[in-house]
Amino acid sequence: MIEIEKKSVVPIYGLMVVWVLYCIFFQLSSILNFVGLASAGLITYGLLSLFFPAKTISIEATEKPQRTGDEKVDTMLAEGEKSVTEMRGMSASITDEAIKQKANELISVTDSIFKKLLIEPAVYTQVKRFADFFLPTTVKLLNSYVRFSQSGARGENITSTLERISTALDTTLISYRKFYDSLFENQALDIETDIYVLDTMLKKEGLLESDFDTKNS
């Protein structure tokens, strides 16, 4: 947070009004008149400054995204930041506390994974495979949950779909944590197995079909 002082414009306007009125009623024909003008202006400005003091406001500091200088790594970092921003926006609109908690945990782990990539670009290959499948899948699941939960409909199909998405988020979160831990243990995690398991489950549940967003509405 950055604090800045914002001065009131009232003393300035008051000063201008006094000067205009002084010039109307008094001719500036002598040094004494100029002294009187200056004195009236200073007194007015001082009094109004007491009644309308400056205010201190706080604003969020906008930090420039950190980069490594490696084009392919920086491109992935930017994609990760975009996905995290999307997920945060969707999480904010989720009212179910259990689902919101899952979404926030996914966001936290995702953010941590890309911070690891930032300080250790050598994990690029592992993170890329992870990002290519899990990020778009997670964004799709959260987006679908938000759309269905806010549709206003509460039929059997909608309820069933929301429950299946919740289960899929559980499985996704387990894979996220497992992958993140592997980055610190220097293990060549067989992420293909996790991808296969989740992909198979989502297809079985119909959560990856191209018409998923419309067939259940």
Structure description:
The chain has 217 residues and is mainly alpha-helical. The protein folds into 2 domains: 2-59; 71-215. The protein is 71% helix and 5% strand. It contains 8 helices and 2 strands. The chain has helices spanning 10-25, 31-51, 71-92, 97-119, 124-149, 156-184, 191-204, 212-215; strands at residues 2-6, 55-59. The protein has a two-stranded antiparallel sheet. Helix 4 (97-119) packs parallel to helix 6. The longest helix has 29 residues, at 156-184. The radius of gyration is 30 Å and the shape is elongated. 19% of the residues are buried. Mean pLDDT is 81; it is low at 210-217.
Number of helical elements: 8
Count of folded domains:
2
- The share of residues in extended strands comes to under 5%
Shape: elongated
Q: What gyration radius follows from the Cα positions, in whole Å?
A: 30 Å
How many strand units?
2
Indicate the percent of residues in helices.
over 70%
Overall mean pLDDT score? Answer: 81
Low-confidence stretches: 210-217
| Distance between the amino and carboxyl termini | 43 Å
Largest sheet: 2 strands, antiparallel
